[in-house]
Write a structure and sequence with these properties.
Length: about 190
Amino acid sequence: MAPRGFWGRVFGWLMQLLNASAYRWALMRLLEGTPERVLELGFGTGALAERCLGAGKTHFYAGVDPSPLMLQVARERLGKQTAEIDLRESTDADLPWESGSFDAVLAVHSFQFWQDPDATLRRIHALLKPGGTFVLVLRMHGRKPPAWLPNPYSHMGDERAGGRRALARAGFIITHDKRISTASYGLSARKA
Ligand SMILES: C[S@@+](CC[C@H](N)C(=O)[O-])C[C@H]1O[C@@H](n2cnc3c(N)ncnc32)[C@H](O)[C@@H]1O
C-alpha cells in the first residue's frame, strides 16, 4: 500500500516494467485533450509522470502518494524537468488544490487503496476544469480480491461495475471503458 525500504525499491522497479501498457493507455487518453495542468493520485516511481511530461504539453504536474520512498524516487526522476512539479506525501483523501485547477487527473492502480472512493471522485470532479479528463486504471484482482483492501468496491469484488456507477454519481461521463491487459482495466471519463 505504501512501498518502503529495499523491497519497496524492487517493487517500484518491477511495477513500472509490468505497468508499461497501462501507462501507454493512460497517456493516449490524456493526449486526446490539452493536459497543461495534470494531477496524479498514487504516482509511484513517477514513470507515468515522466512519460506525460515528455509529451511536451504539460507545464504543471502535481501528485500525491503516501510513500516517502516513492516521493523520493519520483522527485529524483523528475528533478530535471522544466515543468513546475508539485509532488506531495499525501493520499487521495487530501487534495489541497483549488477547484478547477486541472485539465486532467490520473490514477493508475491506486483506486483499491482509497478509503472513501465516492468522496475522492467528487473531489476530483471539483478539481477538474469543465470538460476535463479523469483517467482511472484499475488493478485487476480476479474473483477473490484481498479482503484487506480499504476501497469497498475493490474488496467486495465489484470494482469495475462499482467504479462505473460511482463515476456517474460523481458527475462524470465515461468515454472509454476497456481491458488493457490481464492486470489493468481502463476507464476514462469527462467532467460533465
Ligand atoms: C501499485 S502502486 C502504482 C504506482 C503507479 N501509479 C504506477 O502504476 O507505477 C500504488 C501506489 O499508490 C500509492 N498509494 C497507496 N495508498 C494511496 C492513497 N490512499 N492515495 C494515493 N496513493 C496511494 C502507493 O504508495 C503506491 O505508490
